[in-house]
UniProtKB/TrEMBL annotation:
<keyword id="KW-0815">Transposition</keyword>
<keyword id="KW-0814">Transposable element</keyword>
<comment type="similarity">
    <text>Belongs to the transposase mutator family.</text>
</comment>
<protein>
    <recommendedName>
        <fullName>Mutator family transposase</fullName>
    </recommendedName>
</protein>
<keyword id="KW-0238">DNA-binding</keyword>
<dbReference type="InterPro" id="IPR001207">
    <property type="entry name" value="Transposase_mutator"/>
</dbReference>
<dbReference type="GO" id="GO:0003677">
    <property type="term" value="F:DNA binding"/>
</dbReference>
<dbReference type="GO" id="GO:0004803">
    <property type="term" value="F:transposase activity"/>
</dbReference>
<dbReference type="Pfam" id="PF00872">
    <property type="entry name" value="Transposase_mut"/>
</dbReference>
<keyword id="KW-0233">DNA recombination</keyword>
<dbReference type="GO" id="GO:0006313">
    <property type="term" value="P:DNA transposition"/>
</dbReference>
<comment type="function">
    <text>Required for the transposition of the insertion element.</text>
</comment>
Length: 169
């Protein structure tokens, strides 16, 4: 059986290519990695599906609960639509932390090569801040510096702030 409480569980999905009946197709591999009360990582499970979706994540979370996981304090996830709601269905008290790597990657999709290093440095000031107030100040500074050229970046960070702020609590 799994531990009853995990302070942090990382939930992510990767798409891999597999050979099926002489064809190469994409499959989604769901991964749940828990950090236990001793600070050690436990692979809670791997699941395979045709694609990633919140509905399948709900079945994964239901299985984890059935296998003995009573509580998850923080779930670190990507920005998949419906994911926070799927988590709340099984673990209503769990705090959501959006994955910073996913946020940065999604932000940098919009950035021209000449601005890449400067934008990366300014984003780093947000997520490496020591307090939420400092992070919000850095986000405002980022908005003033880059908001005209890359409005979608600051907007995305502001929109998702409720699930980014867990990092500072």
């Amino acid at each position: 059986p799994l531990d009853p409480i995990y302070p942090i569980v990382y939930l992510d999905c990767i798409v891999i290519k597999i050979r099926d009946n002489m064809r190469v197709i994409n499959k989604a591999i769901y991964l749940a990695l828990g950090v236990n009360m001793d600070g050690k990582k436990d692979l809670l499970g791997l699941w395979m599906s045709d694609n990633e979706g919140a509905k399948f994540w709900l079945s994964v979370l239901t299985e984890l609960k059935n296998r003995g996981v009573q509580d998850i304090l923080i779930a670190c996830v990507d920005g998949l639509k419906g994911f926070p709601e799927a988590i709340a269905a099984e673990y209503p008290e769990t705090r959501i932390q959006l994955c910073i790597v996913h946020m940065v990657r999604n932000s940098l999709k919009y950035v021209s090569w000449k601005d890449y290093k400067a934008v990366t440095t300014d984003l780093k000031r947000i997520y490496q801040a020591t307090t939420e107030d400092q992070a919000l100040t850095e986000l405002e500074r980022f908005s003033q510096q880059w908001g005209e050229q890359y409005p979608q970046i600051a907007k995305s960070w502001s929109t998702h702030w409720v699930n980014l702020r867990t990092l500072f609590e």
